[in-house]
Amino acid sequence: MIRVEPHLQAVSLPANLRINDQISEYRARCEAEGCDAPYHHFAFGQSPFPPPPDVVEALAQNAKKHSYLPTAGLPELREAIAAYHVRHFRVACSGEQVVCSPGSKEMIAAIMTAVAGPVIVPTPSWVSYLPQARILKRQVIGLRTREEDGYKLAPDVLIRGIQQLGSSQKILVLNHPHNPTGAVYTEDELGELADVCRRENIVVIADEIYALTAFDFDSFTSMMKVYPEGTIVTGGLSKDRSSGGYRFGVGIFPKEPSELLESVLKVAGSTYSCVAAPVQYAALAAYSGGSSVDAYVRDCRAVNTLAGRLISSKLAALDGVKSTTPRGAFYLYADFNAQAEQFKQLDLSSCAHFCENLLEVEHTALLPGDALLLPADDYSVRCSFVDYDGEKALSAWRDDPPKDESDEMRFAQKHFEIMLAGVSNIGRYVDEIRAGKRPTHG
Ligand code: PMP
Prior knowledge:
Bound molecules: 4'-deoxy-4'-aminopyridoxal-5'-phosphate
Number of strands: 13
Number of helices: 16
Shape: globular
Largest sheet: 7 strands, mixed
Strand content: 5-15%
Strand order of the largest sheet: 2-8-7-6-5-3-4
Oligomer: single chain
């Protein structure tokens, strides 16, 4: 009998994969019963757009490159990534500070492997930091952020949360634009956190994979700008350049100590060796693509901003539902706790039960709070606003961008129809719950 490591029992499969399985199961069941009502998938986390054509072309052109490349990445690619960060984020950065990886998830795991100290994760949180830390047998401290702070980590919450940890080094995972709330920190807010981090010996993993999706990108600040000596930034091509399946990520390290980057390279070289050669050339096109890639990122951002603003305002208008107003990324965070008592009385005793029931009854998928590191009976969810044909929407936007609010509404009715119908489904469902009725599949 093959035994597995017992600590992996505490690690669950990513909830989004579980929900995809659930959708397939319900869909098959519905079809067998002759129900053809569509599904509304707010549990996804993937860019709806096709990748930039220059990047696809570079990948195809380099398909024959099959040699191993340097673990940190091609020197010209590392330079291009550094230059991209200097240009977009106004930070000082050079190619030697850059390490490439097959996705930023892998980079975050390599950093957590190399850097000493307990891992502090503000919650609600992206689904994967906790499993990664658990796989690595690291101590994790979840810090609950407050609604009145816009679910951003406030300095006093950080200070209180680390009180029992003493003066030795700690790691804070700070993600913005934030998955799942869509929150973006201001430069002042980051500066205040940086002061605490300096004082309290905290290294920051700044997960800025959504940086270029920030709706108001001109006022986006990287943590690296305010805390350069203690921040490791992670990013990549998965979100703003819509190439998640290419698996390309990046870590940008402080200049000192050199041992840090060397240690991450030891982990990288001993686990993934290097990013696939054709993908490194595609990444070179993505980071040095100049105006055509910039225009692509800008136009995708405009469509995504409209989707985020519209879906959050529609959800917030429903009785019994609170929604964040996202300022970046593909997500908002919605709170259904006003119905907590009714849910419990109707035998929907956890947020996961509620989401399962909503999916079954209304064909509408949300990501339950337990996947975001929240208690099982907190009826809060992540809602992604990416369930539309991004290729069509992007091309329509480029042909004829909306000029005013009524144009935007027309655009939304046409391209975001499935999401708007999903929000109506949620409204109908919540009304039934509030009336004390357990909804059933009709
Ligand atoms: N961080 C956050 C907050 C994410 O949402 C994701 C993807 N869902 C990642 C990191 C990982 O992205 P990738 O590995 O594709 O770079």
